[in-house]
Amino acid sequence: MTRKIIECVPNFSEGRDMQVIGQITAEIEKIGGVNLLDVDPGAATNRTVVTFVGTPKAVVEAAFQAIKKAGEVIDMRHHHGEHPRMGATDVCPLVPIANITMEECAQLARELAKRVGDELGIPVYCYENAAFRPERRNLANCRAGEYEGIADKFKDPNWKPDFGPAVFNDRVAHTGCTMIGARNILVAINYNLNTTSTRRANAIAFDVREKGRKKREGDPITGKVVRDENGKEVWIPGTLKGCKAIGWFIEEYGIAQVSMNVTDISQTPVHVAFDEVCRSAQSRGIRVTGSEIVGLIPKKVLIDAGKYYLKKQQRSLGISEDEIIKIAVKSMGLDDLKPFNPREKVIEYLMEDAEAIGAPRKLVDMTCAGFAFETASESPAPGGGSISAYMGALGAALGTMVANLSSHKPGWDADWEKFSVWAEQGELIIEQMLHLVDEDTNAFNRIMEAFGLPKGSDEEKAIRTAAIQDATLYATRVPLETMKKAFSAFDLLDAMASEGNPNSVSDAGVGALAIWSAVHGAWLNVKINAAGLKDRAAADALLTEAASIASEADVRRERVIAICNEKI
Description:
- By secondary structure, this protein is an alpha+beta fold.
- The protein has helices at residues 18-29, 56-73, 102-120, 139-143, 150-155, 170-175, 198-208, 270-283, 299-312, 321-331, 342-345, 347-356, 368-376, 384-407, 416-451, 458-487, 489-499, 505-530, 536-567, and strands at residues 5-8, 11-12, 34-42, 47-54, 89-98, 124-128, 178-182, 187-193, 213-214, 235-236, 243-250, 255-262, 288-294.
């Protein structure tokens, strides 16, 4: 069964004392099934954003323990910072990451909120998707009045906490209130301005945030606020949907910033928000010098941004993930104030690194020499299947290279996008083939594990036999998948030999030979593994499909080589 994974991003009202922060995060690290991914303190805001992921039960327990510890070590009566806040644990959102719905996260958030209120005596407001009332979905409404306004807030029957005490007692004076909710992935990003003016930073924020600004008569700053026929203030919406923003001055950096939360990256991608802030700033004689990500982001944010800026430059999008991310970092100035390391800021990378601890090293992570010598060693794996998959990756890589060279060839500017599309397809095939390099070895290891099962009793023998057959079937399907994925690269190589940069036609030819070898090498593995299958109908079906692909690969190879020889 696939694991359910959720993320938790609590914000604690302490960003300067690392001993206090360390006591809180230590509580999270005590809980099994949780990976602490990021701790991002801010001195000016006096606030720390913590990110951890794991199974729902473990994450909720870790969140509770962190909230408990924060209530013990942070005294809100002495807290001051640039960021709005209500409590020692200001907000604690749960975010669905994998195989779990928003509704499930909302229910978990409510259960956590009840436990915090009942057991810790901390008032809790449930917000966003966990809210019990429509007006409490908006975090800004729940936080209105901040810590200093809690006593007055409790006097309003409409703002009684969802859980916990509704009186400003000594306990609440110490801990403040906490907002617990469930929300989608949120990107917190600050835009650096070449000004020290908080007022001008706010003006830019009001231009772009969805809420916008109050409509005024005459002067847009000092003019009288316009009201409708019901006496309600009239607002002029901003230009960016799903974005919240304010302006502030950061003494640590000596500049003003527009601080933004992008609450729906599908509605407003971060790169679109960046360009719009730049446009608004420029109209006011101000320049955005860069930006900084607060907390963590999904990889998609940087990939989408990198491709967006590459497309604006009419450059090929079919380059490596690392190169695309580098373009995103430079385009949005994410390294303006301090170095930006994607391995420390991207959720997927941090999860990969956490899961890799203690795990066997992947073949694709080795050097070329290391892979070659590992193959040459006396161990039976990696073997022909993994080598076939790697040859497929190299063949697709050559086709992708020709596409990229063609996209950037002087005089071929009008066709850059056509070649970019080919290069993107090639990059996808490379990724698929590299996955199969390790998957083929994993399939072999499954067979070895099955043969190692006990075979004493009749029941054990039956279990062992079934496991061997299941593993053998899988070990037959993996090289068949290698054949299919490798074969799909012939379209790319044919197009590059026919239409690509003529100076690189030999590279397309070598690519075709590598792909042919990948297909036929994998076919040998299909045949030898299918021989061990007792279900001959299944074996024959796999062999028939594989033979057809191998035969067609012969035709495709000859076509590409003929084109190459003709052009050479």
